[in-house]
């Protein structure tokens, strides 16, 4: 009986497959060999060591073994917007930015590195006033693990300066266990990242919070304070309340909306851009730079633009990217020299001959004269644009996000040389008229006038 291995049909199939394979190999040998590009190895991030040193009662940050004094701006992205203003920060003599969360940390760190800047990266620790319960041990443990994951992502980035563990956790809170959680996060950071200090940012300075941080947060390396009108008190308060270490002014500027006079209808009166810049100069020279023993530097708020009570209150830039006089002032304070082209200076704004504190009541549909006086250090021609907004009704705290009021068109007629005419809205209520005086070279002066339509 014939063996199955000697079946004629099988032998024929074997020969066919051998022939097919051979032809494929020969065909492959005749193809042109296209060299493949070499795969680039991923860039390996190398941490730059930052440490806090003390000598004879004087504290100093060192970065890469060199003294490092922070000349920075508070900075964040909104709604996925692109990185802006960092080139101008570097050009003005700034060296660092502070952020409030890790949401855009990769983009912010990479961009900072591009311009030779560092970043104090904020860790968005949950706040009691927004519903977090620090008695919930499971939630606290979960938050610690989430913070650990974020630290591990960015700890080796060469632009990282330090970690800011939470922002204003002392605002509207009752449970001191939050400070235990802050200490646990700081301990965790020191375990996984030996190269960067830790801090936490307080809203103003009170003795109970300083005591809590001293006793319940020993892993914190330095204290950070957010202060505006009360900033001149900071050096004395730090010492009077028993803080023995270094501190950072993590947020500062002109008077905030909770610190200024109000109109009769409770609208806060905003300073114009010239008045804000003058406040920067006094507070920087007499407070921040005047405490070289303890103060490690500062972050002015805000190196960018945001809506908070108004679109201009804390904004050093307009939404169009125009720089105010405050930007010029920070360059002078950081470098000792003014920019080649300086922003216009706004002296005053009047509605029907009244200043903001004189309570401007107007009648619906009636027309009223508006006057602003602006000068330009470089004698540039000034262009004026006007914007009418309803008074913001947002009731927020701690810098929570606000919706910008919608502009009301068609009620302001621009005249010449800082003159305009306002036709009062028909609907009773509170409003603000804004002026933006531009020099055509991306510099601007700003002011606004609150008024009330009364039937």
Q: Can you offer a commentary on this structure?
A:
This protein is α/β, with parallel strands linked by helices and 455 residues long. The protein folds into 2 domains: 50-341, Glycosidases (TIM Barrel, Alpha-Beta Barrel), CATH 3.20.20.80; 346-453, Immunoglobulins (Immunoglobulin-like). Helices cover 26% and strands 25% of the residues. It has 9 helices and 19 strands. Strand 1 and strand 2 form a beta hairpin.
Q: Order of strands in the sheet with the most strands?
A: 4-5-6-7-8-9-10-11
**What is the distance, rounded to the nearest whole angstrom, between the alpha carbons of the first and last residues?**
118 Å
Structural class: alpha/beta
**Shape-level CATH architecture of the largest domain:** Alpha-Beta Barrel
Outline the biggest β-sheet: 8 strands, parallel, barrel
Q: Might you state the CATH topology name of the largest domain?
A: TIM Barrel
Q: What is the CATH superfamily of the largest domain?
A: Glycosidases
Radius of gyration: 30 Å
Keywords: Hydrolase
Protein name: Glycoside hydrolase family 2 TIM barrel-domain containing protein
GO molecular function, one term: hydrolase activity
Domain Glycoside hydrolase family 2 catalytic: 134-226
Structure at a glance:
The chain is an alpha/beta fold.
Write the layout of secondary structure elements.
Layout: H1 8-30, E1 50-55, E2 58-63, E3 66-67, E4 70-74, H2 86-91, E5 96-98, H3 105-114, E6 118-123, H4 137-154, E7 160-167, H5 177-192, E8 198-203, H6 207-216, E9 222-226, H7 234-240, E10 247-252, H8 273-288, E11 295-300, H9 325-335, E12 345-351, E13 360-362, E14 367-375, E15 383-390, E16 412-414, E17 419-423, E18 429-438, E19 444-453
Parallel strand pairs: 4-5, 4-11, 5-6, 6-7, 7-8, 8-9, 9-10, 10-11, 13-19
Antiparallel strand pairs: 1-2, 2-3, 12-14, 14-17, 15-18, 16-17, 18-19
